[in-house]
Amino acid sequence: MSMATASRLSGIVLLALGCAAAQPQTPQPGQGAPAAGPAGTAGTAPAAVAEQGPTEVVQAASQGMLNDLDKDRAAYRRDPAKVGQLVDKYLLPHFDTEYSARLVLGKYWRTATPEQRQRFVDAFYHSLLNNYGAALADFTADRLKIYPSNVDPAKPTATVRTEVKRDNGDRVAVNYYMHKTPQGWKAWDVVIDGISYVNSYRTDFGAQIEQQGIDAVIKRLESGEKPEAIGKTAGKS
User: Fold this and answer.
1) CB of 216 within 8 A of CB of 208?
2) How many CA atoms lie within 13 A of 54 on its CB side?
């Protein structure tokens, strides 16, 4: 599956949100995840949420958004920007956006200024949401299957396995890599049909940052350019 196809799917499975690319030591799918990093940028979760297991977090977030979509799906199709409000309400609190951004930028995070870091986090998130938020308006319960998981309470990491049904009926494996934070379980990477957003975007953005600098990449994201389109231009300048 191409990165462009994975990006279109991301709109359907909620996870175009905190995905990008990992540092070299970040494990591949099946090898576990790093210990919990900094808390995400969405603030402190309620105590009830903090007590939920990783599977329950994914289930509750998905169901909450589906319930609101079903109340007036036609309105969300007419105005996809409204979907962003649902993402902020139900999904963003469960994604460790800052940690994912650190992994996306890799070595460039260490040399970026605090302002550049925050701009990148905001621009990457909003770029993905603006480009793929419309697909979420057609996201329905019958398109998502969440598998039960047995999580060792002593471990700070977990993988939640799901499947998403595409328009043609094919099912695609979508695995959420999660870690435990003071605010509860948060996702930091999504692997769609074997493709890790963390690894893919780190490679794509890294090549472009190397050529044009981090500010150029941030400006392109802020303009609404699709993240995978930025990666395709690397090596063409």
Assistant:
1) yes
2) 27
- Is residue 237 packed enough to be buried (19+ CB in 10 Å), middle (13-18) or exposed (0-12)? exposed
Q: What is the CATH number of domain 3-22+48-232?
A: 3.10.450.710
CA 180 from chain center: how many Å? 16
**If pLDDT is split at 50, 70 and 90, which confidence band does 17 have?**
very low
The count of residues in the chain is 237
Mean pLDDT for the chain? 75
pTM of the model: 0.73
Instruction: Return the exposure string of 16-42: e unless at least 16 CB atoms fall within 10 Å of the residue's CB, then b.
Output: bbbbbbbbeebeebeeebbebbebbbb
pLDDT of residue 131: 66
Per residue in 181-190, pLDDT (tens digit) is: 999 999 998 8
| Annotated domain spans of the chain | 3-22+48-232
Give the separation between CA 118 and CA 112, rounded to whole angstroms.
10
d(CA 136, CA 138) in angstroms, rounded, equals 5
